[in-house]
Amino acid sequence: MTREIELVHELAITQLDANMKGFIEASKASNTRRAYTTDWEHFMNWCQDRGEVALPASPDTVARYITAMAETRKPSTLQRKLASISVAHQAAGYPSPASAPLVRATMQGIRRTLSMAQRQAAPLLVEHVREAVCVLDDSPRGIRDKAILLLGLAGAFRRSELVALDVADLDFQDRGVVVTIRRSKTNQEGQPETKDIGFGAHDTTCPVQALRRWLDVADISEGAVFRAVSPGGDILPRRLQDRAVCRIVKAVAERIGLSPEAFSGHSLRAGFVTQSYREGLSESDIMRHTGHKSRTVMGKYRRESERFLTNFSAKVGL
Q: For the chain, is the Cβ count within 10 Å smaller at the N or the C terminus?
């Protein structure tokens, strides 16, 4: 870095008031100080390349900077860069341009746009789960993972809902099992919700039988349904974490020849919706089972289910 940049850093540090300096040095320690320094240098170089003034920077300059960075940076990274610019300005005795309405509005628009453009998790469909059941063995871990995949797909469960299940939430009946969801992403404090999971058409992929088999093998009669399994196959008392569902989905995707990067814990829920559309189920029935409230949200699943229904290449004679 140039001596000019070093002098600005020295000036910023020496002019920090006690509270600001204490925050930087104590709250985030050396990692944040390094991040602030790197971010500030990047902003200064960006301004220098474009003939802009970095200190004090105008809100317009900062807004254009984060807009340019949004092409390759995540919103969280952009927010940190704004914090770095703010700290440098306040340290040098200038008001922060990051708090200007123009910059806040720009950042809000970036967050909304990038959030809408997020890549959706690929759906884990019935054909995939059938293959997965075949490659998973009959060890305690394999039996547990089969139950998670089959129940997760059949119930369109979120991964957090799966791992939160207790035995008391399961009511086995003649036609299947009624699962009670105490809390969900869209129902944090409301009344418990229930989902009926019927017996499957095939024994090997029946979610009810897979769930019952796991409980029997693991000798679980109360407490958490899905639990950790040691490398030696011992059932541990602790509840499975939701991130473990993601790992299970990715692992089986890779074992059956799919790209694990495309899948996540949400792939089971996405798989149910996509498969249901392909099978011709009505949207109202699908939404009743999944708990979706917005038809706009359902649109992305419907579009996914309709891919390649018509071979336009062949239709036009290619």
A: C
- Residue pLDDT, tens place only, 29-76: 456 677 788 889 989 999 998 999 999 999 999 999 999 888 767 788
Establish whether 146 is a catalytic residue.
no
Helix residue ranges, H only, the chain: 3-14, 18-22, 29-49, 59-69, 75-91, 101-116, 126-135, 140-155, 159-164, 207-218, 242-255, 267-278, 283-290, 295-305, 312-315
Per-residue pLDDT at 184: 64
Is 202 tagged catalytic?
no
pLDDT at 171: 96
- 251 vs 113: which has the higher pLDDT: 251
Annotated catalytic residue 277: no
**Domain check: are 60 and 187 in the same one?**
no
Tell me, yes or no, if 65 is annotated catalytic.
no
- The pTM score is 0.61
269 is a catalytic site residue: yes
Q: Is residue 278 part of a domain?
A: yes
| Options 81, 144, 269, 289, the catalytic residue | 269
Nearest to 215 by CA among 177, 158, 160: 177
Instruction: Exactly one of 158, 159, 227, 289 is catalytic; name it.
Output: 158
189 in the same domain as 101: no
- Catalytic residue, chosen from 81, 89, 144, 266, is 266
Which one, of 283, 12, 257, lies nearest residue 127 by Cα? 257
Task: Give the active site residue among 119, 185, 307, 315.
Answer: 185
Q: Are residues 193 and 273 in the same domain?
A: yes
Domain end point (choices 93, 116, 139): 116
Residues 216, 193: contact at Cβ < 8 Å?
no
Each residue's pLDDT tens digit, 124-168: 999 999 999 999 999 999 999 999 999 999 999 999 999 999 999
Residue 316 in any domain: the answer is: no
What's the domain range around 58?
Answer: 3-116
128 is catalytic: no
